[in-house]
């Protein structure tokens, strides 16, 4: 299944969908599939700062704990409250209800450094980890 074309991607398997000056951040379908059943997501609170390609949280599955990296720099406007009680939303709807953060962008130019859907699909087809 091709990755959605309305978002940009990192090689660490996060995505961002930008609307106005706010980016919604999550992990890709490929990432959730590799992790298996998600049981916990640790996210920063509203008001926290995140930085481009720096750790912002952790995601725990039945297989492993993995770090999450922000595709953008800015201030967290909202962390997805539904993930506290329903972390499996990341598995069920990684580009929809399983979103993680909404970030007010401080440097919209960072979006140009990220991969398009086609570039990301090529990356995972070549055996991305």
What does this structure look like?
By secondary structure, this protein is an alpha+beta fold. The protein has a single domain (8-110), classed as Beta Barrel (OB fold (Dihydrolipoamide Acetyltransferase, E2P)), CATH 2.40.50.100. Helix content is 19%, strand content 34%. The strands form 2 sheets. A 6-stranded antiparallel beta sheet has the order 1-2-3-9-8-5. The chain has a 3-stranded antiparallel beta sheet with strand order 4-6-7. A hairpin with a 2-residue loop joins strand 2 and strand 3. The model has no long low-confidence stretch (mean pLDDT 95).
- What class, by secondary structure content? alpha+beta
Q: Return the string of H and E elements.
A: EEEHEEEEEHHEH
Query: What does the overall shape look like?
Result: globular
Overall structural domain count: 1
Q: Determine and state the CATH class.
A: Mainly Beta
What percent of residues are in strands?
25-35%
CATH superfamily: RNA polymerase II/Efflux pump adaptor protein, barrel-sandwich hybrid domain
- Going by CATH, the architecture would be Beta Barrel
Residue stretches low in confidence (pLDDT < 50, at least 5 long) are none
How much helix, percentage-wise, in residues? 10-25%
Number of helices: 4
Mean pLDDT: 95
Strand order of the largest sheet: 1-2-3-9-8-5
Distance between the termini: 18 Å
